Every structure is written in C-alpha cells, then in structure tokens.
Amino acid sequence: MKKIVIIGVVVVAIIMLAGYIGNRDKVCKKHLGLLTMDKVGYTVGKVTERDELLRLLKNGKCDKIEITYFLNMVYGDDIPKKLVYIKSKKLLIDIFTRTDVKEAYTVESGKLIKFLENGGKNYSELN
Q1: Which positions ≥6 away from 22 have C-beta within 8 Å?
Q2: CA torsion 25→54→124→83, rounded to 10°?
Q3: What's the pLDDT at 127?
C-alpha cells in the first residue's frame, strides 16, 4: 500500500512539473546600460528603452519583456530603472528600482507598438 501511495505522489509531482515547464512564459530581458536624458526627462540617443521595447514587441516571441537601464544624471547618482511589459495582462510598468516607485499602464501590444512607432514617449497618454 505504501508503494502505491509513493508512486502516486511521484506521478502527480511529475505531471505538475511537466505542466509548469510547458506553461512557462518566454521572458525577454535586455540591459541597456547608461542612457542619456533630454531636458524634459526622456531618454535620447542611438538606443533608448522605447526603441528596445518596440523591437521586442515586434519580435512577437516574448510573453514578458524586462528592460533595465540607468538614467545619466548631471547631478547626483544615476537612476536605475526597469521597464516591464506583460503581454497576457496587457500591462506596462515603468519602475524606479532604487525607490520601487511604479507607474503602471494597461495597454494592448498592438496599441503600444503603434504608440512607439509614432514616437510616443509619455506613457500616461496610453490610458
């Protein structure tokens, strides 16, 4: 009887593990390093977090996108930031990682792509 229970528990554990592995989301991560800001506070330069977000959204293979970077500050320490998009929840989160202040926006990926392609910078315009 003990062998049957143990075998049953092992089988259930294997089934649960297989389901977990099969249902994992594809997370795309990118670290951009130090980015420069304009006088309004948006990143500028050859590559920005918006450019990378657009590239990964268009790729279509990412269920979740995580982009980390630092904002170059003239005075004081550079600001660590993280931009996260969760496709299944249609959720864009802009995070100041030092203070854990989060700004969240609900937006479908198609609308976000169009916003970024049109040069959108202010995420609050998405809502």
Answers
A1: none
A2: 50
A3: 77
pLDDT tens for 21-61 read 555 789 999 999 999 988 888 999 999 999 999 999 999 89
Give the tokens for residue 28.
Answer: 């795309």
Question: Closest by alpha carbon to 48, among 87, 63, 56, 97?
Answer: 56
Contact by Cβ (8 Å): 38, 50:
no
**What rounded mean pLDDT belongs to the chain?**
86
Residue 114 CB-density burial (10 A; 0-12 exposed, 13-18 middle, 19+ buried): exposed
Q: What is the DSSP letter of 66?
A: E
The stretch 104-113 carries a mean pLDDT of 96
The span from the CA of 83 to the CA of 74, in Å, is 22
